[in-house]
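User: Can you write out an input/output pair for a complex, sequences first and structure second?

Assistant: Here is one pair. Inputs:
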Amino acid sequence: MSEITREDVQHLAGLARIALTDDEVTSLTAELSQIVDAIATVREVAGDDIPATSHPVPMANVLREDVVGETLTHEQAFAGAPSHDGERFRVTAILGEEQ
Amino acid sequence: MKAKLMDFDKALELFEPVLGFEVHVELGTKTKMFSAAPNPAHPEFHGAEPNTLIDPLSLGLPGSLPVTNETAVRYSISLGLALGCEIATSCRFARKNYFYPDTPKNYQISQYDEPIAFEGQVEIELANGRQFTVPIERAHMEEDAGKLTHVGGSTGRIQGAEYSLVDYNRAGVPLVEIVTHMIFGAEHDAPELAKAYVGAIRDIVLSLGISEARMERGNLRCDANVSLRPRGSERLGTRTETKNVNSMRSVERAVRYEIQRQAAILADGGTITQETRHWHEDTGATSPGRPKSDADDYRYFPEPDLLPVEPSRALVEELRAALPEQPVARKRRLKAEWGFSDLEFQDVVNGDMLHLVDATVAAGAAPQSARKWWTGEIARVANERGVEAASLVEPAHVAELQRLIDEGVLTDRLARQALEGVMAGEGSPAEVAEARGLKVVIDESALVAAVDEALAAQPDVLQKIRDGKVQAAGAVIGAVMKAMRGQADAARVREIVLERASG
């Protein structure tokens, strides 16, 4: 049985910017433990000789030629934007920084 | 608040610096890493208006799906090979999750546990002749983020800003992040090693032709990790990661600053906070950013929208065969080809002008002429303005300037005036010369008239020349040059003065 704590769930919710009620934290703590356990079971079955599955159909190297395609106009780009100055998107100043 | 700093030599006496670097290289492909939107790091799309090089993927619109750029993969493999790395037989992309408006998807596509290239080394030669091997841990592919401009407040920085404006042109630009292992043993050379390392990466990238590698444009960005440990201690100290260092000179200064700052704290019995710090070019200091979060907090997981990249061995060998020579070997070759003295060559290397002189020579200038421009007038102006020489003028323009002198169109002095115009953004040397009316007066009759006038105005000088005191001619030559507003060939004026005086 994995040891997911309420604090773990609260931390994860914070990282994911999801607001949870106390009840939700309680139920998610139990559910997340079960999910982690389920994954652990699958892991036991897959030995070192079995590569990780990245796609249901085994494929690789699906690449695109370096050729310029269509771009959005300002009108299209800003169509769904809550705020903009005609050239750039306008967002609330957020304390933090680029990663 | 100004941090307390310890004298550099004293700091080195007490502590051993341990370095690490993360260098981001923007690849100059035509399109972005995962979409067909134009790449602002490609010369064709420089200076585009904000939010014109975007498509649904750049904005993270629902339903848009990434497809990997083949050229970006090839460039990444070439770079990995040039760094002496092994190339993965199979690698995957991962999502690095974080919330910030520069990344509208709320995650950056990167590589986590499966980088395309790993375990290499870069050979570096310091100005004092010391050879150094920097161990490379990995080089992985990822995408760049958009650009934020903070509006309001006084400084343009985030503190006190009222809102931010976002330009997503840069979102999705292909990046390779090169991560070193911890670097031990740099000692007093640590700041210079930092600069030399970034210079070596820049040279490699330029020789591969995969990026313009202009630091002032953000094509090449360096984060410098610095930690100190007391002499005799095996245990590593806490490190800081300094960001926002966008010139080679700044990298050197930032590393020196962090060594001095951390040493002062540790010597006072304090502790170093593991954090991101920001370099400020104006004050020459770093300031604290956010505490560094664990990789766990990014909740990396395999990118489900992309398939693995499995470079064939044939491709890897094809790219390996096409690699240019190593920077250290190139340096030796250029020194021999150019025929510079040790001192002249060292001057070029120390000024970080090897690639500039090389490009100027490639554009047709004689090596010595190219060297004189870069280490002379251009270096002087760069110093004066506190900017990088490369940001002032294009090598091709320097070659053109020299050609105008060689062809007798401009004198040295006029060429310097033309250069001034070129640096002010007035166009190419020929355009500036034309617009400013700079040209050597070759109208002999005008010269002769000017000489006669000057001689008539200074009869005492005329007498001296006639008495054989040839050096007195200088006063007349000066007067003629002044009358001609410097647009005459001084050597020719001298000839005419002597001719007319004796006549």
